[in-house]
Amino acid sequence: MTTVQSPPAPPTAIRPRVVARTSLYAVLAANAAVVAYFFAQAGFASNALIVIGRLFGLYGALVMAFQLVLVARLPWLDRRIGMDRLTSWHRRTGFTLLWTLLAHSVFIIFGYAEGASVGPITELVDLAETTEGVLRAIVAFGIILVVGAVSARYARRRLAYETWHFIHLYTYVAVVLAFTHQVAVDTTFTSSSAATAYWYGVWGVALGALVLGRLALPLWRNTRHQFRVSAVVPESDNVVSVYVTGKDLDRLPAQAGQCFLWRFLTRDRWWQANPFSLSAAPDGHTLRLTAKAAGDGSAALRHMKVGTRVFAEGPYGAFTTLHRVRSESLLIAGGVGVTPIRAILEDIEGHAVVLYRVSSDRDAVLYDELRDIALAKGAELHLVTGSPVPDRLAPSELARLVPDIADRDVFLCGPPPMMNAVLRSLGELNVPKQQIHFERFSLAG
């Protein structure tokens, strides 16, 4: 049988990720300038410490609103930047917010204490008792301190996701308290009708984006598509594929390489969301996920009954062919990280080389499918087996298997240690960063 392939799509002239990132920076910079303008227009207090404190407070409010946009899971941003990077930016911005609000509090308290000729603690108590909105601000800052503490790497690694997420939800309480504090005491907020309209607009857009991306869009898509489990197929002793069908799936904007947050609506698992990427390119009729038993949630998939209702949030992720800059590709998979790689191989155009890294042949799930797709598309497939030492994907080995590696897009997915090692190898081989595509799939806050 002869397979005729369409010519590969031309490389993207303007990288979508660059466009989205630049747009975010430009919007943030423009808002920072507007905040400075309204701050100057409102006039300055006689105490320099109070002036600095108010400015930090305003920028703290702006950063807080920006944080909401980063985790709103808006499709346009998510497909161009990716959930993992947006979540990482959200985390870094969170620590920026913490220090900004700390500076706001310190400068304001010491500024008013200096004017009243009292100590900072006395002044803090006096402000909380006499000034509307200050007590709410103290509670909001306390919540942000707690969330910042549990989000530090040391604490985050030792907390269950459910515990961390429950604590993190209190951030929304802090947002409401901070907003009402700003309305009550900020002279800049009410200095002019334009300033008031601006700040209501900022918070309206931020909260609107959050409601749209995290609530309205998932509810609308699940109501429209009515996802259900249509088949459960064991792939190995600890890996299973789940097939999901629904209505009008040809109108679901899912791409090979993307993931969903899946909630299987059983009595004991309906509350738990698990991020699994698609293990086959969407065909308009069926979605397939393939998961390894790594916990109670993923292990329970093997016993899922056909007909089980599914609540799927997504599709999410920028790990797609949208970001290609070269006409030829290298796809590197490790372990169960083969799932999005297998989907991308099915979807990708142009010559591709696939490296599948596993400990032994029996760990190579979906290998037969990879082989059949590679044969049909004229791709090269290499199964790389053996222990982690020596490194089977070291620079010398990659250069041997793929001599033109620097001229290819590289799609990478696998366990974090393997991905880190391969990224170092690609750096040593001088593969340009814009040609390296990967995502670290995890739940976003």
UniProtKB/TrEMBL annotation:
Domain spans labelled FAD-binding FR-type: 222-322
UniProt-annotated location(s): Membrane
Membrane topology, record value: Multi-pass membrane protein
Key words, A-Z: 2Fe-2S, FAD, Flavoprotein, Iron, Iron-sulfur, Membrane, Metal-binding, Oxidoreductase, Transmembrane, Transmembrane helix
Pfam families, per the entry: Ferric_reduct, NAD_binding_1
Transmembrane annotation, as ranges: 24-44, 56-74, 95-113, 133-155, 167-185, 197-217
Gene3D superfamilies (alphabetical): Nucleotide-binding domain of ferredoxin-NADP reductase (FNR) module, Translation factors
One Gene Ontology molecular-function label: flavin adenine dinucleotide binding
The organism's place on the tree of life at top rank: Bacteria
Cofactor: FAD
GO CC annotations, alphabetized: membrane
InterPro entries membership: FAD-bd_FR_type (IPR017927), Fe3_Rdtase_TM_dom (IPR013130), FNR_nucleotide-bd (IPR039261), MRET (IPR050415), OxRdtase_FAD/NAD-bd (IPR001433), Riboflavin_synthase-like_b-brl (IPR017938)
Protein's recorded name: Oxidoreductase
Species this chain originates from: Streptomyces cellostaticus
Lineage: Bacteria, Bacillati, Actinomycetota, Actinomycetes, Kitasatosporales
